[in-house]
Amino acid sequence: MWRSGLRQRVKELLMILPSCSFLPPSPSPSQHVAFTKKPLLSLANASLCSPGTMSTATNLDGIFKEKQVLRSKVRKSLKSMDPSLRSQEDDAIQSLVLEAPWFKSSQRLCAYITCSALREVDTSKLLSQILQNPTKDGSAQNAKKLYVPRVEDKNSHMRMLNISSMDDLIANSMDILEPAPVDQHGNAREDVMQANNPVDLFLLPGLAFDKSGRRLGRGGGYYDTFLRKYQELAEERDWRQPLLVALSYSLQIIDDGAIPVTLNDVPVDVLVSPAGVIPISQAALNRMQI
User: Fold this and answer.
1) Contact 269/243 with Cβ under 8 angstroms?
2) 53-104: per-residue pLDDT in tens?
3) How far apart are the two ends of the chain, measured CA to CA in Å?
4) Residues with Cβ < 8 Å from 31, sequence gap 6 or more?
5) Rounded to whole angstroms, how far apart are CA atoms 130 and 111?
6) Which of 121, 124, 128, 137 satisfies CB 3.0 to 4.6 Å to 247 for a cystine?
7) Distance (Å, rounded) from C-alpha 155 to C-alpha 152?
8) In the prediction, which pLDDT does 74 show?
9) d(Cα 282, Cα 288) in Å, to the nearest integer?
């Protein structure tokens, strides 16, 4: 595990060495307060590239450690979450997504398969809706194509492969369900990176989020790495960028700015919690016609 973490820090270092661009200041703290905001070693501090200050590597090491501390706190909170409350919030979050116009109108989606051991927001109802027979209501226009993650190695490499049924999933070495690389006929599954049409929507997991769009993952860098690559692909092909939607329990939403970030961290466009749908980016506001 420590090697994976070290590789991730090296990748973050390589990404910020060529330039000294910085993130904009965070908005005022949200009403969902789970942790106290404090000064951070983040790239929002312009002194990182000033002569005589700590090296970039040192600052990245500080950010990495702060992320680890925050992950530990959130994991403990999730572990102590009442099961009945978890179930209620799962239902509320999925209902909000299912009723959202941006979900109903989406045709191609990437979504995670919930792992109960990781205490992620449940997506079973969402996946069932996506995979349902499009002729069920007499109309094919509601048909949706689904891609789900398959981890390839410990170097943050992940693919999103098309499935047509939950039976297409198998448990990996960590007992996490993922698609087999080939279907029942021995044919390679369609990889979203080779698809001819753009993805409309990503449903994303995470450990912590804030209302400015910051997302704290589990430390492997799989989603951030994949999202960067897909965003680059969409830009190359002149496609509209997909809407990045994070699903969050109430306790996972923390103070704006309390999540330390680097240039490698991809912000989300929309945050969905039991309290409602929070559009964050201009793309989200435009798509929701707010």
Assistant:
1) yes
2) 334 667 888 999 999 999 999 999 999 999 999 999 999 999 999 999 999 9
3) 43
4) none
5) 10
6) 121
7) 8
8) 98
9) 10
Residue that the structure tokens 């680890």 belong to: 68
Rounded CA-CA distance 89/72 in Å is: 22
| Separation of alpha carbons 228 and 224, rounded Å | 6
CB atoms near residue 51 (< 10 Å): 5
In whole angstroms, give the CA distance from residue 179 to residue 190. Answer: 11
Say if residues 152 and 158 touch (Cβ distance below 8 Å): yes
Residue 289, CA distances (Å) to 175, 246, 282, 284, 285 in order: 41, 19, 10, 8, 6
SS3 call for 183 = coil
By the 8 A CB rule, do 237 and 279 touch?
no
CB 163 within 8 A of CB 125: no
Q: How far is CA 217 from CA 84, 131, 185, 276, in A?
A: 25, 27, 35, 21
68 vs 150: CA distance, rounded Å: 24
pLDDT for 194-213, tens place per residue?
Answer: 999 999 999 999 999 999 99
Rg value, the chain, Cα: 19
Report the 10 Å Cβ neighbour count for 34: 17
How far, in Å, are 86, 142, 210, 250, 252 from residue 81 at the CA level?
7, 36, 19, 10, 11
Our CA angle for 289, 98, 129, nearest 5°, is: 135
pTM for the full model? 0.79
Render 221-254 in DSSP notation, one character per residue. -HHHHHHHHHHHHHHHTTPPPPEEEEE--GGGB-
